């Protein structure tokens, strides 16, 4: 429901995350060299085999140029094929990280999925933010097996200040 404090890492890629108790690697993330302010989002991998990674990691460029004020980024970890409208514009979401899009200060998001040839609403909310804010919407699998209503977390914040020009 919130961002953790910032951390710094200088070293080889992929960045590996280890379970301290067992010493096993539970997640890996490759952060591209051009990303200087990354947000790493962890989601459990359902049915991970023994010895396999337990979390998938989405790497989001948190720099003001990539995710500016008025921007909306959606991460679809729901496992469902979702399409619908964002601010009245048709959209089909990819699995995982979707490209940032500029939206209004009050934007209606309506997403549906199809099951057995019938369309069902999976997510519907109004996202409201100030002109100086941006939003990150994370969609998780439905709580109940067989359900199509995704779980969601919406994080709204202000982009970081741009670094001074040299």
Describe the structure.
Helix content is 0%, strand content 46%. The protein has 166 residues and is mostly beta strands.
Draw up the topology in text:
Elements: E1 15-18, E2 25-29, E3 38-44, E4 55-61, E5 71-76, E6 83-86, E7 89-92, E8 96-97, E9 101-102, E10 106-115, E11 118-128, E12 134-140, E13 151-157
Parallel strand pairs: 5-12
Antiparallel strand pairs: 1-2, 3-4, 5-8, 5-9, 6-7, 6-10, 10-11, 12-13
Gist of the model:
This protein has 166 residues and is an all-beta fold. It has strands at residues 15-18, 25-29, 38-44, 55-61, 71-76, 83-86, 89-92, 96-97, 101-102, 106-115, 118-128, 134-140, 151-157. A hairpin with a 2-residue loop joins strand 6 (83-86) and strand 7.
Structure characteristics:
4-stranded antiparallel sheet, mainly beta, 166 residues, 5-stranded mixed sheet
Number of helices: 0
**Topology as H/E string?**
EEEEEEEEEEEEE
Q: What is the percentage of strand-forming residues?
A: over 45%
Largest sheet: 5 strands, mixed
List low-pLDDT spans: none
Helix content: under 10%
Structural shape: flat
Mean pLDDT: 87
Q: Could you tell me the radius of gyration in angstroms?
A: 17 Å
Distance between the termini: 36 Å
Look at the helices and sheets and give the structural class.
mainly beta
Number of strands: 13
